[in-house]
Amino acid sequence: MQYLMDLYHASSTELVLLFVMLVSLIPVIFLIKRLIFIPVKNYLTRHHYDDYERIKKYPIFRYLLHTLLALYFVCWGKIFHSTAFKAHVLLGIKDTIVILYTGISVTMLLLTLIDAFADLYHNRIKAVTKNAPLSLYFQILKIIVIVIAAMVTISYILNISLSTFLTSLGAAAALLTFVFKDTVLGLLASLQLTTQEIINIGDWVRIGAIEGTVEKITISVVTIRNFDQSISTVPTYSILNSNVTNYRGISESGARRVKRVFNINMATINFCDATILKALKKSPYISKDVIDKITLDKEEKDLTNIKLFKLYIQEYLKNNPAVYTEGFTFLVRQLEPTINGLPIEIYIFVKEVNLVGYENIQDNISEHFISILPEFKLKIFQNVGVV
C-alpha cells in the first residue's frame, strides 16, 4: 500500500525524467551499435580476420552493450538522486536492480573476454605451451573475477564497506568451506599438481587402473584419453591420494628400457670345442671379427657355449646403433637357474621412445637372438608337458 502511495505522490518532473530515460534508451542502443560496434567489427574483419572469426562465437559485444547500458542507468540514477525523488521505495528498488544489473553485466563481459583471450592465446602458442594446463589457469582467473564481483556487488547492495563485508565473510569461512568443499579441494589440488609438475597435459600416466595420455586439467577433473581411445575422468583432488606413475621421464631422457629374458635349455649347455668355434666363424649370421674379439684371451677349455652366447649378445648390442651403451644401464647377465631353464636377461635402454618404433626394436633384438641360438648349439627351454 505504501508503495502505491509513494508512486502516486511522485512529482510530474520525476515522471518526465523516468519517461525520458526509457524513451532515450532506444537511440542510445542504436548509437552504441552504430558508432562503436560496427566500426570495431569492420576493423577486426579487415585487419584481424582469423582472430575475429575465432572469437566471433563469444558474445563479447552483447555483454559490452549490457555493460554500457548499465553505466547509462547508473548516470540516470545520479540524476534521480539529485532531484530528491519522493518515491523512496522505488528509489531503493531501482538502486538494487541497477547494482545487480551492472555487476552481472561487467562480470559476464570479463568472463567472456577471458574465454576469448584463452582461445586466441592457446591457438597462437599451442606449440610452445602444449603441456601447460592453460584451461586450468584461466578457470582460476574466472573464479577470482566471480568472487571479487560478488563481494563488491553484495557490499554495494547492503551499503557496507568492502572491509566490513570481508570481516563478516571471515566469520562464515567455515560454513563456506564446507559448502564449497569439492571446489576448494579441487582448486588446491590442481594448483599443487601443476606447480609441482606431478602431471602435465600430454603426459603418459597411470593412475590406479587408468592408463593413458592427459588431455585436460581443470579444477574439478583430470581428463585422460586411454590407449583404446576411450575417455576417463579422475577427480582432481583424489589424484594426490592416488599412486600416480608418470612416464614423462621416458620422453625427456630420450631412452626407453628393454628388459627381456631368454630361458635356455640347460641340457644344451656345454664347453666349446674347436668345432663349435670354427662353425661360428663360418656362419653367415655371425661376424668373424666378433668371434675373434669375444674369444680373445679366453681359454677354450673354460669357454662354454652359454658364455660365448652371452658375450656375443654384449658385442651385438654394443654395435647396434639403436642401443645406448653409455649413460644408461647396459647389462647382460645370468639369473638363478629355475625349472624352466637358465635365464639370460637383457637389461638395456634404446634410443626410440615412440611405442611402435620401440616395439619393433625389441622384436628385432629378440628374434635375432632366438634365431642365432642354434649356431651356439643352444635351445630355448620349452615345457612340452604344458598344453
From TrEMBL:
Supply one GO BP term: cellular response to osmotic stress
Record's InterPro entries?
LSM_dom_sf, MS_channel_1st, MS_channel_C, MscS_beta-dom_sf, MscS_channel_2nd, YbdG
What are the residue boundaries of the Mechanosensitive ion channel MscS domain, all occurrences included? Answer: 182-248
GO cellular component, alphabetical, reads: endomembrane system; plasma membrane
**Start and end of every Mechanosensitive ion channel transmembrane helices 2/3 domain?**
139-181
Molecular function terms from GO: mechanosensitive monoatomic ion channel activity
Q: Where in the cell is it found?
A: Endomembrane system
Chain coiled-coil ranges: none
Q: Which UniProt keywords apply?
A: Membrane, Transmembrane, Transmembrane helix
Annotated membrane topology: Multi-pass membrane protein
Q: Where are the transmembrane segments?
A: 15-40, 60-79, 99-122, 134-154
Question: Is Metal-binding among the key words of this record?
Answer: no
Q: Which Pfam families match?
A: MS_channel_1st (PF21088), MS_channel_2nd (PF00924), MS_channel_3rd (PF21082)
Q: Which residues form the Mechanosensitive ion channel MscS C-terminal domain?
A: 258-372
The family assignment reads:
Belongs to the MscS (TC 1.A.23) family.
* Descriptive protein name: Mechanosensitive ion channel protein
Annotated source species = Rickettsia conorii subsp. heilongjiangensis
